[in-house]
Design brief:
heterodimer; A: mainly alpha; about 65% helix; B: 9 helices
Chain lengths: ~300, ~130
């Protein structure tokens, strides 16, 4: 059977067939169909579902040309992390191009992080959070470490950030700098930015617009201290903070340094204490687009 | 992925943000991306939250939709969390986890002498705790 027809029979969509055949059109390999079937059987033996096999092949069509012994070597690589099957499967499904990284390349990445004093368990954690971690070169890793070091983060803080939010390795230093600048634009000092981002590394993953909107919103309400005291308060939506703030105003509850934490307590605790649910709050005090625009203007 | 970007109304800055994080974004399978978005919509996520998720964690769109479905079902059944709009807007990276990873986090928290009820509350209020464990 022709390679293209085989792909269609295996329920690849028209666009997927186009992408896969485009990758292989130059290879001129007349045994593509056989190699494709061999790969499907290989992954079936590894207990992948048909949906998973389709994704692996679609995301990395070159996998069809790889020898099975080569794939086996890549599976063996995971032994050093003592990964179980679901962990290995996650990495393969998310980043099938892993099979095209050479063994030497993979080993050198492991050594790189070991030299930075990461344990195997910590490297494994990062790999699960960012399966494409080893796809980046050492120069990129260096640029991330330089970014944090030059800003004044301690070694412990850098390690914590990179383990809990390994995606920083895929961003690059320019992206990180733009997030850093957006916090600075909201009137935060360097040491405050380090404190906030070390406690809440995922802020580096938020859009600059969303970072600035949130920080300026709390600044406008005089609640900067609430963020500095507990940066994780930033994960609460502006809509809820706005509703709770206005609820307090309507009920003549003065917000002071002693009670501002109430704006950020759990929903159930808030409902019990003030006899109003989150849904009622959001309905009674909607943070409308008009309000959002007005606040932006006021910033 | 261009159709998908249009359908959720991303602006130019948001598109640039995604491209800087995921240079391979346009190679993702659009049908899977659309099915992942539909799963979020059918589980109560607003368009604003969906945009936030996609901009913060674009690689979520590359999930196998069955994995996303299994994850949402697990959170619903085992953690009894119903407000997915709130949960995923607080931790958009949660959508890149698989069920076994959440199970591991719960086991880990249990070894820290936390009972299941407390763990569920912790995850509900601060789902970023999953990233720390």
């Amino acid at each position: 059977m022709k390679f293209e027809e085989l792909l269609k029979n295996y329920k690849f969509t028209g666009n997927q067939v186009l992408k896969i055949t485009k990758t292989h059109i130059k290879s001129g390999d007349i045994t593509l169909s056989k190699k494709f079937i061999d790969k499907v059987l290989y992954f079936r033996k590894k207990e992948y579902t048909e949906e998973e096999i389709r994704k692996i092949i679609y995301m990395h069509p070159n996998i069809i040309l790889l020898e099975e012994s080569n794939l086996d070597i890549h599976y063996d690589f995971f032994d050093i992390f003592s990964f179980k099957k679901p962990q290995i499967d996650k990495i393969i499904k998310t980043f099938p191009s892993f099979f095209s990284l050479s063994s030497n390349n993979l080993q050198s990445k492991v050594e790189y992080f070991k030299n930075k004093n990461y344990t195997k368990e910590e490297i494994a954690k990062m790999l699960l959070k960012l399966p494409s971690l080893f796809n980046h070169d050492e120069e990129k890793y260096d640029s991330i470490y330089s970014f944090f070091t030059e800003k004044g983060y301690s070694k412990e803080q850098i390690k914590y950030i990179t383990i809990t939010f390994a995606s920083v390795f895929s961003y690059g230093d320019k992206t990180l700098q733009s997030k850093y600048d957006s916090i600075k634009n909201c009137d935060y000092k360097d040491e405050e930015i380090i404190e906030i981002t070390s406690a809440l590394p995922s802020i580096y993953g938020s859009s600059t617009t969303s970072i600035e909107e949130k920080l300026k919103f709390y600044n406008s309400l005089g609640l900067k201290k609430s963020i500095l005291d507990k940066p994780t308060n930033l994960i609460q939506s502006i809509e809820l903070s706005y509703a709770r703030y206005n609820f307090f105003l309507d009920n003549n509850i003065l917000i002071t340094d002693d009670n501002r934490y109430l704006l950020f307590i759990g929903n159930e605790t808030f409902a019990r204490r003030f006899n109003i649910t989150k849904e009622e709050l959001l309905n009674n005090y909607p943070y409308t687009e008009e309000e959002r625009g007005r606040n932006r203007w006021n910033f | 992925m261009k159709f998908l970007m249009l359908s959720i109304g991303l602006n130019d800055d948001e598109k640039k943000e995604i491209e800087s994080k995921e240079p391979n974004f346009y190679e993702y399978d659009e049908i899977s991306g659309i099915r992942n978005i539909e799963l979020l919509r059918s589980n109560g996520c607003s368009n604003r939250t969906i945009k936030h998720i996609v901009v913060s964690n674009p690689s979520f769109l590359n999930n196998i939709p069955t994995d996303t479905k299994n994850l949402i079902e697990y959170i619903h059944k085992e953690l009894k969390i119903r407000d997915f709009n709130d949960l995923f807007s607080k931790n958009p990276y949660l959508l890149s986890k698989e069920v076994f990873e959440l199970e591991d986090v719960i086991k880990n928290l249990q070894t820290q002498h936390k009972d299941l009820k407390t763990i569920k509350e912790l995850i509900k209020e601060n789902p970023l705790i999953i990233e720390e464990n």
